[in-house]
Amino acid sequence: MVDIEVYSHQEDYMKFQNLRPDYIKAITVSLDLAKKYVADKEEVILADFCCGTGSNSKEFASLLNGLRKVILVDINGGFLEIAKKSGIKSKDLILQESDILEASFLKECNIVLSIFAYHHVPDEKKQLYINKIKECLKDKGILVLTEIYFNNKNNCMEYYKKLFESIPSDKTIPGLKKFLQQTAESSDFEFKVSKDYADKQFEDNGFTLLHEEKIWSNDDNSDEKEGTFVQIYRL
Ligand SMILES: C[S@@+](CC[C@H](N)C(=O)[O-])C[C@H]1O[C@@H](n2cnc3c(N)ncnc32)[C@H](O)[C@@H]1O
User: Fold this and answer.
1) What is the pLDDT of residues 63-101, one digit of tens each?
2) Cα dist. 71→76, 101, 227 in Å?
């Protein structure tokens, strides 16, 4: 069991995430940009890395009126059970319950969703994570990299505190504060890096940045390179 309890109570996961202004906006922006940058809408083959409940694939498939193939990978079988029953519009649906670093792929995908996923891989294995993206993404394929970046742990703690305070008190639900606190403090499931670190790693691996948006927070006090970002890369 990891040090963030909600990952053992999968049915609560989306309830918590859907109260977060950073998460809600990040998903909307990610999927709108994914739609914009994918060329051949009829033959889309998508891999969703660390897919959770598969809700992002489900929404993206609906936006495109169905996909050719969706490959969902998550280490947590409880999430994949939810995904399997969720009605993702795809001719072919592949579910892999696996550590993402051990998943098998063919080089067939037009698009990879890496949405709040890269930071779950310890830093010394992040290169292997990128190798997996390159293993499944076709040349000129699109990577949607949606991530949270911090320069240090203290700024990470501040972010989650501010995030909780930004949610109206009549909207909060039991367990939300604990979930955000555990996420901020996690040392065995969260390995967030600075934006410079990630930018360099993807650039060194041959990815070209096509578009970037800062999602949260956007107040004057926040460092311009810290917080939640959506980045669109082409391989
Ligand atoms: C923050 S959630 C994001 C889920 C989904 N992408 C979303 O946007 O809601 C992180 C997910 O990564 C999965 N995960 C963490 N480490 C993993 C690993 N090494 N291999 C595969 N999945 C992993 C967790 O089980 C969880 O579903």
Assistant:
1) 999 999 999 999 999 999 999 999 999 999 999 999 999
2) 15, 15, 28
